[in-house]
Write a structure and sequence with these properties.
A hairpin with a 4-residue loop joins strand 11 and strand 12. The longest helix is centred in the N-terminal third of the chain and has 5 residues. The protein has a single domain, classed as Distorted Sandwich (Beta-galactosidase, Chain A, domain 5), CATH 2.70.98.10. Helices cover 1% and strands 43% of the residues. The chain contains 1 helix and 27 strands. By secondary structure, it is mostly beta strands. It is globular.
């Protein structure tokens, strides 16, 4: 289960390496240093193998066209209202990149930086590191980030950590776009999430602060369902679910099945929330993996994270980290 390394491209004068992890069950995962993006993820199926994520064959498409395909988003994932926050009496103004909001750490966030990768062959793992200086995308503090991907059988585990020299918000997320099947959209995938509530959104798509019960709404995914309404029309999902209190992290938070019912994805995480997004805004003008075209609803994101816009909602789980409170986060996917 050795890890192989090759050069995939260059960005800003830095070489972008690709790391290929292969397991004893025949799973292959390609991860590039640009944004720690999972570029491709292939799983054995009857008659061969299937690519189960959205990505690109050519590096140049990533900085030009990628909506965070497979990457790590941060320093703060999801949306920050008014692209600003107050910390210890100081107002920090951030570059907005989604209307009046900052989304996924800004245009030059962690998902658009080149990380350094180090191979750990003994564990079929790659450890990526990145230094983010004080003031990067408007955030305070010098931060050292680390991300380790480990492949074992059909399970891919991600462990994230960060240390900072001063108080600063940190909330990372993996941003895989999954398509477990052979169809152009994910609308006929079956999804189930262990969540009974969601964060209400305002007109600007930032949370209002209200946490509402999902029973009787399209956000109620406690029972497995396709992403279609009663009339068979596709349902667009881009919402933050609040995971149930008292849950055991040994149990998956989400389960997704392909339309063909030949692959099932399970996700475990230590985070309190899950953003479910089924490619509502996806419209990529260049070919993806194997020449595929990626349009609306072509991928499903299961973004395990702290709740969106926690910096403006003190009743949400705290995302302020400091020298005394380093950041850590893990998640694990199994596709079989």
């Amino acid at each position: 289960m050795a890890v192989t390394v090759s050069t995939f491209g260059t960005h800003g004068g830095q070489r972008v390496d690709q790391f290929r992890l292969t397991s004893d069950t025949g799973v292959t995962v390609d991860i590039i240093g640009y944004g720690v993006a999972v570029r491709d993820w292939r799983v054995p199926v009857k008659g061969g193998e299937r690519s189960v994520v959205l990505g690109f064959d050519d590096f140049e498409a990533y900085p030009a066209h990628s909506p965070h395909f497979g990457s790590l988003a941060g320093r703060v994932a999801n949306r920050i209202k008014d692209a600003s926050f107050v910390l210890d009496g100081v107002t920090y103004r951030l570059p907005a990149n989604a209307g009046s909001l900052q989304l996924h750490g800004g245009e030059e966030g962690l998902g658009r930086q080149v990380w350094k990768g180090q191979v750990d062959n003994a564990n079929s793992a790659v450890r990526f590191t990145h230094f983010s200086p004080d003031g990067a995308m408007g955030y305070p503090g010098n931060v050292n980030f680390a991300a380790t991907y480990t492949l074992s059988g059909n399970r891919l585990r991600l462990e994230l950590s960060a240390t900072t020299d001063r108080a600063t918000p940190i909330s990372l997320v993996q941003h895989q776009y999954f398509n477990l099947g052979t169809t152009e959209t994910v609308l006929d995938h079956t999804i189930q999430v262990n969540s009974s509530a969601y964060t209400e959104l305002g007109e600007d798509l930032a949370p209002t602060g209200a946490i509402l019960p999902s029973r009787g709404t399209i956000y109620d995914l406690r029972t497995p369902r396709r992403m279609r309404d009663a009339a068979g029309q596709g349902v667009d999902y881009d919402m933050g679910l609040v995971l149930d209190n008292g849950r055991r992290t040994s149990e998956p938070i989400a389960t997704v099945m392909s339309p063909e019912q030949d692959l099932t994805l399970k996700l475990w995480s230590d985070r309190p929330g899950l953003q479910v997004y089924n490619g509502v805004w996806t419209d990529i003008p260049v070919p993806g993996l194997g020449g595929k075209r990626y349009g609306k609803n072509s991928g499903l994101c299961l973004e395990d994270q702290c709740l969106s816009d926690a910096v403006h909602n003190p009743h949400f789980p705290n995302i302020i980290h400091s020298p005394e409170r380093p950041y850590s986060h893990w998640c694990e996917f199994e596709i079989a």
